[in-house]
Amino acid sequence: MIRLLARTVIFLLGAAIGIVLTDLLFSAFDWQTFDVVWGNPLAFVLAVVIFALAQAILSPFLAKVARNNAPTLVGAVGLISTYVALLIATLVAPEGLDIAGWQGWIIAPIIVWLVTMLATFLLPAVMLKEALENRRDGD
């Protein structure tokens, strides 16, 4: 049960980091096509949860479909599920995440996918390191 909870937290944190860093990157380039609506933090949290849930459901489904019908697309499953999950998140929680224009729909899913992938890969190591340090300090 604790592992499931830890994986869920890591996946949600990775999704939030991916979306926030994409927003910061788009702001740095002055592209207004991928915006986190910071005026409504609850809607942003809802958008992150919807995105993470949609991606968690879509990834295995799309991987199975690709493996059975188009094996050459298996490598693109993560990117495709990220795109569709972002679409669902903007439809369900438009008050938290706004995507428009070609940069928002072409470049942003790639950045979100890369950052989320790296975050979900690196976060467990960081969290484990902190837990071990806290345990050592507590003894």
The radius of gyration over CA amounts to 16 Å
- The SSE order reads HEHHEH
Helix content: over 70%
Tell me the number of structural domains: 1
Q: Helix segment count? A: 4
Q: Which of globular, elongated, flat, extended, rod-shaped describes the shape?
A: globular
Strand content is under 5%
Termini separation (Å)?
25 Å
| Assembly of the depicted chains | single chain
Strand order, largest beta sheet: 1-2
User: On the 0-100 scale, what is the average pLDDT?
Assistant: 90
- Give a count of the beta strands, DSSP E runs of length 2 or more: 2
Which secondary-structure class do the elements indicate? mainly alpha
- Major sheet attributes: 2 strands, antiparallel
Task: Give the low-confidence spans.
Answer: none
Transmembrane segments: 9-29, 41-61, 73-93, 105-126
Protein name: Superfamily IV 4 TMS phage holin
Keywords: Membrane, Transmembrane, Transmembrane helix
Organism: Isoptericola chiayiensis
Question: Please, could you describe this protein's structure?
Answer:
The chain is built from four helices and two strands; from the N terminus they run H-E-H-H-E-H. It starts with a helix and ends with a helix. It has one domain (15-116). Strands 1-2 form a two-stranded antiparallel sheet. With 139 residues, it is mainly alpha-helical. It has helices at residues 2-28, 41-69, 77-92, 101-138, and strands at residues 34-36, 97-99.
